[in-house]
Design goal:
Helix content: 10-25%
Largest sheet: 3 strands, antiparallel
Shape: elongated
Strand content: 15-25%
Strand order of the largest sheet: 1-3-2
Number of strands: 3
Oligomer: single chain
Structural class: alpha+beta
Length: 75
């Protein structure tokens, strides 16, 4: 396969994080409105992967509520 070389195409900006993990201080939390179990699992997996990318690896905990889930920074 031959690839065409192109010039002058700008690099798209980085995506903004979906969840405000880096902005949380210890004791802060945010709410994710969902009652779909599959979506809750996706959120939990995304949190797990995202926390590995944050310097000093802050700790978070999540709790399922009747109308969604809440994420707290605990360390």
């Amino acid at each position: 396969m031959i690839y065409e070389i192109e010039h002058g195409i700008p690099v798209p900006p980085k995506r903004h994080p979906k969840y405000p993990l880096v902005d949380l201080e210890i004791g802060d939390s945010f709410f994710v409105p969902t009652t779909d179990v599959k979506n809750m699992r996706r959120v939990a997996a995304a949190m797990s992967m995202a926390t590995r990318r944050i310097p000093n690896h802050p700790r978070f905990t999540m709790r399922v509520l009747k109308d969604g889930m809440r994420v707290w920074r605990i360390k």
